[in-house]
TrEMBL record:
Species this chain originates from: Chloebia gouldiae (Gouldian finch)
Chief subcellular location: membrane
Top-rank taxon: Eukaryota
One Pfam family recorded for the sequence: Band_7
Listed InterPro entries: Band_7, Band_7/SPFH_dom_sf, Prohibitin
Compartment annotation: Cell membrane; Mitochondrion inner membrane
Assembly and interaction partners: The mitochondrial prohibitin complex consists of two subunits (PHB1 and PHB2), assembled into a membrane-associated ring-shaped supercomplex of approximately 1 mDa.
Keyword terms of this UniProt record: Cell membrane, Coiled coil, DNA synthesis, Membrane, Mitochondrion, Mitochondrion inner membrane
Protein name: Prohibitin
Assigned protein family: Belongs to the prohibitin family.
SMART domains according to UniProt: PHB (SM00244)
Biological role: In the plasma membrane, cooperates with CD86 to mediate CD86-signaling in B lymphocytes that regulates the level of IgG1 produced through the activation of distal signaling intermediates. Upon CD40 engagement, required to activate NF-kappa-B signaling pathway via phospholipase C and protein kinase C activation.
Length: 174
């Protein structure tokens, strides 16, 4: 009699463990300040961006890709030439974040490491084009103008990649 009771309890426990494992693999969390893009093995990257909270997915078919959408800093050092052919070392500090509505496009066209791929190249491009308009002395005396021009050009260029620049500042011209 007791053996049958323990056998039925064991079966019930095993059934609950399997059910719990399936439910656990069908849930995922998106933390505060983050967004998720769903990759479906049959339909590809979904166009819907998932907000914060706990969400369901189809196990082994769908996979969430979590993106940090908070402002993050990045320092980009650049060596460039001025109008009078002087070498100038400039470090640019950028606070950036992705446009949440464009996360599926960012993931499919650039990848999860979009900041590593995009920011150094566009920063170098913009800094070289702006600094080449000024003499070495003008870079120091007209620092605000240079900083504003770099910020405007870089913000416009970053928008084409789905990035928002919250702040751009020249840290160390030398």
């Amino acid at each position: 009699m007791a053996a049958k009771v323990f056998e039925s309890i064991g079966k019930l426990g095993l059934g609950l463990a399997v059910a719990g494992g399936v439910v656990n693999s069908a849930l995922y969390n998106v933390d505060a300040g983050h967004r998720a893009v769903i990759f479906d093995r049959f339909r590809g990257v979904q166009d819907v961006v998932v907000g914060e909270g706990t969400h369901f997915l189809i196990p082994w078919v769908q996979k969430p890709i979590i993106f940090d959408c908070r402002s993050r800093p990045r320092n980009v050092p650049v060596i460039t030439g001025s109008k009078d052919l002087q070498n100038v070392n400039i470090t640019l500090r950028i606070l950036f974040r992705p446009v949440t509505a464009q996360l599926p496009r960012i993931f499919t066209s650039i990848g999860e490491d979009y900041d590593e791929r995009v920011l150094p190249s566009i920063t170098t491009e913009i800094l070289k084009s702006v600094v080449a308009r000024f003499d070495a002395g003008e870079l120091i005396t007209q620092r605000e103008l240079v900083s504003r021009q770099v910020s405007e050009d870089l913000t416009e260029r970053a928008a084409t990649f789905g990035l928002i620049l919250d702040d751009v500042s020249l840290v160390s011209p030398a």
